[in-house]
Specification:
mainly alpha, 23 helices, 0% strand, globular
Length: 470
């Protein structure tokens, strides 16, 4: 890897996009993408087991729903390759528009998809759901890196980590909007109406957000860093090959630097929602099944694993409160990463995540108040570890393979970190007969791997970002 030694006039290095346009375009896009992603995550816990896998017992249906949820994570590395290729070949702007359209179309179609309960759709409904979920993953695989580059490649000197928090804020904001919609629908609709059509509203409504996001992104001007790549004739024909042959070390480090962040987030959202809303007693489980119009068999009672028994609406509010802390500390993380450096700050936060994993049993053992404390602490750590990722991952790679390199690292990590997290956590919870000790230990182990990757990496804060071209 080499860097250009040419001198660039200070005036020429100024971002061509205004600060407001950069902030809004990077934020609105990731908000939409994560909103679309999260409404599926929430639905996969609350309604999809009954609607798309009605012939399975509750535990099996939930695992089947999470398996479809995980399909998107398999698709994400492919999305990073496809969108990364075009992002490094033709530019960031057009690629970001394409990823947003892909996500929007897939999400809307999920909202109008017949369920397996409709005659003739028992096979096709789950199959098409898998396909649309794959499209969602494909889109998100290309979205994050493009949004991160949009923010950081337009950032003033010494502000990359601060600007990098703007696309990261899309995660908590998208989560809050998605879950507020579910809370509202859950509050105003009876269970029968929510299962019949209410769950579709958040999916269909995403079309409005996509139109706004497309309008903003079409107004963008290509980043200065990519213009430098073009002007110097350094556009790479096969960015993926260049990343794996010449940038394999930062690729491996970036994948594991992101690992604990993924595990933490999906344990804090999907798993805690499952555990928190699962019945605390067999009697509660039987009542819930009858309310949903399902028979609760003796086999299901024998396989019963206790949760906290908190109502769906109450726990969604608890999650929303926790995610507010996620958003606040995402913003806080930017200045901290500039002051102390990305590596030093993330080493400290990752050590905190490892310790946090050991507190799950006593916190959950305290009931609702303990669960709320666990959510707040976990989401504070989430904000602190997620915020700097939009700066540190792109900084690992030169400009002409930056889109592909950061996207592949981010999404390879999703395969090993995010995709199995909910499935593994549920299996560990059930294996421990309702205890969350093994789940917390799983989180701590993930943090140890990330700590090692950070320890082996070098500080990226002061690297020449604009003129670093391989």
């Amino acid at each position: 890897m080499s860097s250009s030694s040419s001198t660039v006039e200070p005036e020429a290095t100024k971002p061509l996009n205004s600060r407001g346009r950069v902030i809004f375009a990077s934020l609105i896009g990731t908000t939409i993408e994560f909103y679309d992603f999260y409404i599926y995550a929430t639905a996969s816990v609350l309604v999809f087991p009954a609607l798309f896998f009605p012939n399975s017992d509750p535990a099996t249906a939930l695992l089947q729903s999470f398996a479809v949820f995980g399909v998107a994570f398999v698709a994400r590395p492919l999305g990073s390759i496809v969108f990364g290729h075009f992002g490094d070949r033709i530019g960031r702007k057009g690629t970001l528009v394409a990823s947003l359209l892909t996500m929007g179309i897939a999400t809307f179609l999920i909202g109008v998809l017949p369920t397996a309960q409709v005659p003739g759709w028992s096979f096709w409904a789950p199959a098409i759901l898998v396909l649309l979920r794959f499209m969602q993953g494909l889109a998100l695989g290309g979205e994050w890196s493009g949004a991160a580059l949009l923010a950081t490649e337009n950032a003033p000197k010494g502000k990359r980590a601060v600007y990098g928090t703007f696309p990261q804020l899309g995660a908590p904001i998208g989560f809050i909007i998605a879950n507020l919609l579910f809370v509202l629908l859950n509050a105003v609709l009876p269970t029968e109406a929510f299962l019949a059509w209410g769950w579709r509203v958040p999916f269909i409504a995403s079309a409005i957000l996509v139109i706004v996001g497309l309008y903003v992104r079409l107004k963008l001007i290509e980043s200065f860093s990519f213009q430098q790549v073009i002007e110097k004739g350094k556009v790479v024909k096969l960015p993926l090959a260049a990343v794996f042959t010449k940038q394999w070390r930062p690729l491996a480090l970036g994948t594991f630097i992101m690992f604990a962040t993924y595990v933490l987030f999906y344990l804090m959202t999907s798993f805690t929602l499952t555990f928190g809303t699962s019945p605390a007693t067999v009697e509660q489980a039987r009542t819930a099944a009858e309310a949903a119009g399902r028979e609760y068999s003796d086999a299901a009672a024998a396989a019963f694993v206790p949760g906290l028994g908190i109502s769906r609406g109450d726990f969604l509010w608890m999650l929303i409160i926790g995610v507010v802390f996620f958003g606040i500390f995402t913003v806080v993380s930017g200045p901290l990463a500039e002051k102390f450096g990305r590596r030093k700050m993330l080493l400290a936060v990752t050590a905190g995540i490892a310790v946090f994993g050991l507190t799950w049993v006593p916190l959950f053992g305290a009931g609702t108040s303990g669960a709320m404390a666990l959510l707040i602490i976990g989401f504070i750590l989430m904000g602190l570890t997620f915020g700097p990722m939009a700066a540190i991952l792109p900084e690992l790679f030169p400009a002409n393979v930056r889109y592909t390199g950061s996207a592949v690292a981010y999404n390879l990590s999703s395969v090993i970190g995010a995709a199995p997290a909910s499935f593994v956590a549920i299996a560990l919870w059930q294996a421990a007969d309702g205890s969350t000790f093994l789940v917390g230990l799983y989180l701590s182990a993930a943090a140890v791997l990330t700590f090692i990757a950070l320890w082996l990496s070098r500080e990226t804060r002061d690297r020449d970002y604009e003129n670093n071209i391989a």
